[in-house]
Amino acid sequence: MAAEASTAKRKIALIPGDGIGPEVIREASLVLEWYQSERKLPIELWHLDLGAERFLRDGTTFPKEMRIAIQRECRAVLLGALGDPRVPSMEHARDILFGMRFGFDLYANIRPVKALADSVVPLKGRTRADVDFVVFRENTEGAYAGVGGQLKRGTLDEIAINEDINTRKGVERIIRAAFDFAKTSGRKRVHMADKSNALRHAHELWLRVFDEVRREYPDIEAAHVYVDALCLYIIQDPSQFDVIVTNNLFGDIVTDLGAGLQGGLGMAASANVHPADPGRVALFEPVHGSAPTLAGKNQANPFAALLTVGMMLAHLGWPEEEQRIEAAVARAVELGQCTVDVGGSLRTHEAGAAVRRLLAES
Ligand code: NAD
Ligand code: IPM
Ligand code: MN
Questions:
Q1: What is the CATH number of the domain that holds 60?
Q2: Residue 311 forms part of a structural domain
Q3: What percent of the chain has pLDDT over 90?
Q4: Does 1 map to a domain?
Q5: 3-state DSSP assignment of residue 231
Q6: Considering only CA atoms, which of 202, 242, 205, 236 is closest in space to residue 221?
Q7: Are the C-beta atoms of 6 and 281 separated by less than 8 Å?
């Protein structure tokens, strides 16, 4: 929790983005406005016009001045989703998303995999009690670092390279963040997932650093697992996992797999933070993308975005509000006051309204 007076005003930048982004961020904004007016939370909202629409209009992706202003003035950014079929290069999306993840050095992408109702767990004989772990995804390097290039493009001799960048500092700080989180949140076990059997240079570093760091946390069980086997074990018995730490690319994949156990991507929230400096601006986003086939139909599940608001409020110093939002979303799913992907029949806006109603009663 941030150590600051609870009355200090926190400025939050909102970037709805593309596809279903604006629809789910609308529900998130309504919750935040409710917190401003009804609960008097000292927050200020700054709506930013960024995304595919803006890029197609005037070529703007993520201006440097805006990044600096966010860094100086904001405590958090809430992003909907980026990705639009009209911009197949994803140029704007990379500039905005990586501009913040890399630009603010938000090295921990924290993605809870938690089922909030038995009905959303697709595994035979399993309940929500079996699905509750947190993935710590390295967020500033790995295959995402952008080191590489193309040679002889368009010829039969073409070469395409994206290097997998693993630095001692980068690997150590994310592993340490996972152990620190396990310790402070009372979790028992940290699994580190790599592919050191095949990637013997890059991932041997993960193995070695994990082995060193684990010694500093004798009360936390530490286990190594190859990422391919991890995917098997998560489906066979998700209850054995507490905290999983892994690299950027594997974390991306494992958390979509995890979302499958939570009721789908409409239920998966995430935070991008710099744990060593909690006062730094942080980025919050649902795990899902812009879901182009759902866009503009008022059908997308807004709960991932609302749970993400919960993570953001906890980061801003109000952890009890995260619990309150989570409980309201869980209750909405139990009551069937939710969208079709999690067993209801409501539209996006109605599902958001149901959670606001339940929040008001809590
Ligand atoms: P996606 O997450 O948009 O969709 C995957 C599946 O989940 C689809 O079946 C979709 O309908 C469903 N889904 C996603 N969000 C949902 C919600 N809120 N409610 C109900 N169902 C939901 O992934 P994709 O289809 O692979 O990618 C679409 C675009 O989004 C691409 O351009 C991709 O690059 C981008 N993307 C962006 C982000 C981000 O901005 N953080 C994340 C992932 C993908
Ligand atoms: C995510 C997304 C992004 C990622 C894409 C849009 C670059 O899939 O946030 O999970 O791979 O990190
Ligand atoms: Mn992803």
A1: 3.40.718.10
A2: yes
A3: 97
A4: no
A5: helix
A6: 242
A7: no
Report if residue 203 sits inside a domain.
yes
Do residue 196 and residue 332 come from a single domain? no
| 53 and 176 assigned to the same domain | no
User: Does 124 share its domain with 204?
Assistant: yes
Pocket test of ligand 2: the residue of 97, 100, 253, 257 to mutate, having most ligand atoms within 8 Å of its CB, is 97
The four Cα atoms 61, 63, 66, 68 give a dihedral, to 10 degrees, of 130
Residues 229 and 293 in one domain: no
Burial category of 326 from C-beta neighbours within 10 Å (exposed 0-12, middle 13-18, buried 19 and up)? buried
Q: Which pLDDT belongs to residue 3?
A: 45
How far, in Å, CA of 7 to CA of 5, rounded?
A: 5
CA 129 to CA 54: how far, in whole Å?
Answer: 43
Residue 204 vs residues 174, 200, 231, 308: alpha-carbon distances, Å: 16, 5, 20, 34
- Whether 120 and 181 map to the same domain: the answer is yes
Q: Which atom of ligand 2 is nearest to the CA of 256?
A: 10
How many structural domains does the chain have? 2
Q: What domain range is 235 assigned to?
A: 109-267
The whole-angstrom separation of Cα 287 and Cα 241 is 19
Q: How many helices (H) and strands (E) does the chain have?
A: 11, 12
Q: Let me know whether 333 and 311 are in one domain.
A: yes
Q: Whose CA is nearest to atom 3 of ligand 2?
A: 252
- Distance (angstroms) between ligand 1 centre and the Cα of 254 equals 15
- Domain-embedded: residue 115: yes
290, 307, 342: which to mutate for ligand 1, most atoms within 8 A of CB?
Answer: 290
Residues 214 and 292 in one domain: no
* Torsion angle, alpha carbons of 137, 234, 303, 290, to 10: 60
Percent of the chain exceeding pLDDT 70 equals 98
Rounded Cα–Cα distance for residues 10 and 88 (Å): 35
192-238 pLDDT, tens per residue?
999 999 999 999 999 999 999 999 999 999 999 999 999 999 999 99
